[in-house]
Amino acid sequence: MERELLLLGLLQRQDMHGYQLYDFIERYMGMCVDLKKSTAYYLLDKMAKDGFVSQSVEQVGNRPLRTVYHLTAAGKERFQVLLRENLAQYIPVRFGNLAGLAFLEEIPVDEAADLLSQRRQDLVNALIELENTPAHPGSFNNLVEHQVIYLKAELAWLDSILERLESAVSSQ
Amino acid sequence: MERELLLLGLLQRQDMHGYQLYDFIERYMGMCVDLKKSTAYYLLDKMAKDGFVSQSVEQVGNRPLRTVYHLTAAGKERFQVLLRENLAQYIPVRFGNLAGLAFLEEIPVDEAADLLSQRRQDLVNALIELENTPAHPGSFNNLVEHQVIYLKAELAWLDSILERLESAVSSQ
DNA sequence: TTTTCCATGTAACTCGTTACATGATTTC
DNA sequence: GAAATCATGTAACGAGTTACATGGAAAA
């Protein structure tokens, strides 16, 4: 549902072809959102069948044919509905690769500290990548901003655990 | 993978039957983790076929038969591998029902504020539920602690957006 | 000239959920 | 006597991913 909302939202602003949609999301929203190429094409097909978008074929120069998608009235309606649904409810994230943290004691402290340091590096890298993401007009920034806050909270939490582990190591 | 790790981790501590595993996770880890009954049974079956757990049947009084699961040597090995994999890498969460936030401008500000207030309520409820969750020995607390931090970060972020929206409403 | 980008798809598969079925037993 | 709990499953479905195939055009 969420990926559909995303596609509808982008098409609300302007007509686009499949690759363009995928590419845009990848480039500018890739750090908060994940949409595979095949999923994009699949969803666009489906939404066409459902009457939410209409298709037209276009060619620029000698480039491959493009299927351009355009929101129908039903599609605009659909977008409004999905948007409201999405905004109105918070769905807590379960599982963010956290299960292991419930079993920290089953592993030697120094090794645990090592492994979590690797995890920390992933986090830091994600933050750096976020900062290097080209800015964007409008509400897209909300997503980026959110991701920054979320990653920083994650980092602070991880550091508090690492600290605990390291003090346990040194007191051995 | 993560749910398998969870089941293996619990079985590491003691033998348990399917319902018991499901029930334990639901009761004590339900706010951070989500495992449906049928998924639990399915995974236990699979892990038995893979040789990670052995089964034995038990009956207490007139209660229904129980299939009790016991970690094999291969299962203990598997647990250690999955645990290390899990700890070592951070996988950023994409999509937490956030897509709508990228299209906030497509909706009247006062309605947006309304919808986000509902979302806020969900968040607050989740926090309350968290506080009412029975405490637990060992590393389980790491998960709970994490969830608290995560929800609070989420709440702070949401409030900053609501504030912005409300000042926009009043300045109309 | 080899790699990357543009552009679209399909088939098979994995993971997990939904909805249903069963039946005894304890609790209200 | 009705409802909730204990205990296990299965069949169908859905969402999304992987891996693959195609083929020209631009960039290195």
If you had to describe this structure to a student in words, what would you say it looks like?
Two copies of one chain form a homodimer. In chain A, strand 2 (53-58) and strand 3 form a beta hairpin. Chain A has helices spanning 2-13, 18-29, 37-49, 73-88, 109-131, 140-170, and strands spanning 16-17, 53-58, 66-71. Chain A is 62% helix and 8% strand. With 172 residues, chain A is mainly alpha-helical. The interface between A and B is large, with 65 and 67 residues. Chain A binds a DNA duplex (28 and 28 nucleotides) through helix 2 and helix 3.
Global mean pLDDT of chain A: 92
Strand content of chain A: 5-15%
> Per the principal axes of the C-alpha atoms, what is the gross shape of chain A?
elongated
User: Could you tell me the number of beta strands of chain A?
Assistant: 3
Number of helices of chain A: 6
Outline the biggest β-sheet of chain A: 3 strands, antiparallel
Strand order of the main beta sheet of chain A, please?
A: 1-3-2
How far is the N terminus from the C terminus of chain A? 51 Å
Fold blueprint:
The structure is a homodimer of 172-residue chains.
Chain A: H1 2-13, E1 16-17, H2 18-29, H3 37-49, E2 53-58, E3 66-71, H4 73-88, H5 109-131, H6 140-170
Antiparallel strand pairs in A: 1-3, 2-3
The structure holds a DNA duplex (28 and 28 nucleotides).
